[in-house]
Amino acid sequence: MVFRTAVNAESLLEEDSSAVTLPLEIEINGSPQGEVIVRTDASLEIVEIEGSILRDLLSGKVTSDLESFVENLPDGFHTLESYQELGLEILLDLERLVIALQIQEKSSYENSGPQRIRLGYQRDPNFDAHSKQAIFSGYANFRFRSSHSEHNNSPSQTAHILGISHVVNFAGYALEGESLWSDSASFETRELRLVKDFPNQLWRLTAGDVSTPINDLQRGFQIFGVNLAKEFGIQPYRSFTPTSSASFDLTEASTVRVIVNGNEARTLRLDPGSYSIEEFKLIAGPNRMELQIETDSGMVDNLSINEFGALNHLDSGVSTYSLSYGYPRSSAAATNTSTISSADWYQRYVSNQPIFSGYYKRGITNQLTTSLDAQGNSEWNRLGVSAYTASDRFGSLNLSLSHNQTNGQKSALSSRLSWGRSVAGYNLSLSSLYTEAGYNQTQSAQRSNDQAIRSSNSFTISKLFREKLNVSTSFLHQTRHDGSSNQNITSSIGRRFKGLYASWSFRYASDSSATDYGTFLTCTWNPAKKWRARSQARYSTQPGGTSLYTNLDYSNRRTNDYINASFDASRTDIGYNLGGSIAYQTGLYSASLSHSQVYGAIDDYIDKGSQTSLTASSAIAFADGAFGFANQIRNSFAIVSKHSAWSDVRLGINPTVGGFEKRSNGAILSPVLPSLIPYRETYATIQTVESDLFLERNDYYFFPSYRRGIHLKLGSDAIYAVRGTLSYSDQEPVKYKAVRFTSDNGEKVDTFTNGAGRFMATNLKPGNYLVTVANSKETLSLSIKKDGETMKFIGSVSLQK
């Protein structure tokens, strides 16, 4: 049978010691249906699913013609590809880490009207299930570097530098900054700003040290001021990229293969009816969706949908904008400056002339987006307009025009054109920039730079042949305002030979002073598992341009740490260099040691000598009284702590092969989940390890705001249990009755007795309890003391009137 041949293939990961086995949520037709067991390699390139669990989940849910298919699903682990070869539409959603399965269910027969099939569908987050964010949280990333260098033409130097990236967040207001300490300049804070998001309005307000967001030909500034931006990243589950759709009718049961941009996205088994495929997301460049429809009677039909998209496109009616106002940063020695702060730890000097910068971008249609931008101050202004359009016929086209005016100077224009299109598999791109003299002037006393670029034009063509051979050629020509020019032509060809990739490039470069012809050959391969080698040979007609370079790299990623070692060697016609490094990384810290030894001279900037560097990094985080360490915290985070009564309980976070991603063992410092993405739903699986205590649930969901922490405190002092035999005052056993334990503060715990009056009550806290029985006025007073024994055996006890 084809089924047995495809699925019963030998597991690819059975002998892989680094493979990870873990449970993942499975969604059937978009609805969560439980968990399956998945085995995968560290890179998630090979994914296998245990067949018996998948068979049990599908049993009774599919239509009659698929029942035998489900019954024959084999036991053991098999790759996703082997299931897909059978026509089963199953894949791993990497963004949400869930297994997504589409299959014809019994209940779908009962539906009437057009049925919608969503591609790239993003569901709104389940806010009710999210862990509460901390009121007061923050973190600091520390990176220490110590280096020692000795060179021929300079005395030996030793430097120590500590960089700190820090954030304090109070109720959603994030105060973030960058600080630096060195043995030569003591401690200083280089950036400090306050950030506040308004999710309902999609606004982000920033005040303090701000880098002005720019659009196309605008100029960026470092200012002390404010910025208001409309940020779609605050609600990423609101899709605003262009999408397309297609509707079709089926007169009989059919198998439909959905192919998007050459890749099979879905294989559907559909009954007769009307269908609409929605949210076909457009990417930059040409987009093509094909529906290959094969009916049960053998008829074959194809439906094609062509659209063109670009990265700068917005949907029709969708807009973004950014507005900045403030004072450009300056120095204490500059003229016409004001002092914001002169403290040793934070010095800020700014120009007396405030500046405004902003842009507005809006989607006119799904294929046309325009923008307006403006910036300036009392003696300078710049206005610009841009348009982004795309079509399957003409490709993507971006046009920008900007006008610059400085008091007392002649106005100047700048324009930019970018175009890209794929023709018969050849990728074509063209870029052209023209700038008049004086366009970059922002002050009336500033002089025009004759070395500035007047025009720059480039063209690139590339093609991939049979997914192995890549060929590309690029041309570049630039002229300056002084009349000088330079041009470059580069061609390369690359091919993969099993485990080796080789590329050969040719380069011609010419300017007013010299002409250079060069070529270089690069080879990359894996000599052994976890090893990578890369070698490059260069030839150039310019002095020092001929060289040999070799790199050997070893990487070993284990369950709880990572080791990397590298060796480099380079040789030119005037000298050579040997160097190497070794790095070690865990979930709490990372450290690396590197050394470079130069013999002769490599170029005009590196003389004979050596340099040795030691680097170490770690981070500390806090959230509502809980503290923890991590290697690095990238944005938002969560700290998992335990109740004091659970001090001896070990928690395992996110199970992996050989253990857990993180463990909670100590009573003071708690584990940190350091890589939560703001405004994106993530979750962690947490369970007790080798303990009689259990958590009420094991899946915890997070939805943090910008650079904010979450404190997840697990467990309570309700860790005691009472076991005994209960009787009435006349010594008759209390048979099959509900029993309630009520504490002094009114908390209630219910249990029941069996036919002999035996009972067990759990989740009790230390204190005094009144024990009552259903349909009886008799009671019992009971005291639970706080000690090391969590299970209390009280023997036979009697109720009292």
Question: Please, could you describe this protein's structure?
Answer:
The protein is mainly beta. The protein has five domains: 1-107, Roll (Ubiquitin-like (UB roll)), CATH 3.10.20; 120-159 and 526-715, no CATH class; 201-235 and 313-449, no CATH class; 243-309, Sandwich (Immunoglobulin-like); 720-798, Immunoglobulins (Immunoglobulin-like, Sandwich), CATH 2.60.40. Strand 2 and strand 3 form a beta hairpin. It has four helices and 54 strands. It starts with a helix and ends with a strand. Mean pLDDT is 81; it is low at 1-9, 106-113 and 237-242. Helix content is 3%, strand content 61%. It has a 24-stranded antiparallel beta barrel. A six-stranded mixed β-sheet has the order 4-3-2-1-6-5.
Question: How are the secondary structure elements laid out?
Answer:
Elements: H1 2-7, E1 20-28, E2 31-40, E3 47-50, H2 51-58, H3 64-71, E4 77-79, H4 80-84, E5 89-93, E6 98-102, E7 115-118, E8 136-151, E9 154-170, E10 173-182, E11 186-198, E12 203-211, E13 222-230, E14 243-250, E15 254-260, E16 263-270, E17 273-281, E18 285-295, E19 300-309, E20 319-330, E21 337-342, E22 347-351, E23 355-365, E24 368-377, E25 380-391, E26 395-406, E27 412-423, E28 426-435, E29 453-465, E30 469-480, E31 485-497, E32 500-511, E33 515-525, E34 531-540, E35 547-557, E36 561-572, E37 575-586, E38 589-600, E39 609-623, E40 626-630, E41 636-642, E42 650-656, E43 659-664, E44 672-676, E45 682-689, E46 699-702, E47 709-714, E48 720-727, E49 738-743, E50 748-752, E51 758-764, E52 767-773, E53 779-784, E54 791-798
Parallel strand pairs: 1-6, 7-17, 41-47, 48-54
Antiparallel strand pairs: 1-2, 2-3, 3-4, 5-6, 8-9, 8-39, 9-10, 10-11, 11-12, 12-13, 13-20, 14-17, 15-16, 15-18, 18-19, 20-22, 20-23, 21-22, 23-24, 24-25, 25-26, 26-27, 27-28, 28-29, 29-30, 30-31, 31-32, 32-33, 33-34, 34-35, 35-36, 36-37, 37-38, 38-39, 39-40, 41-44, 42-43, 42-45, 45-46, 48-51, ...
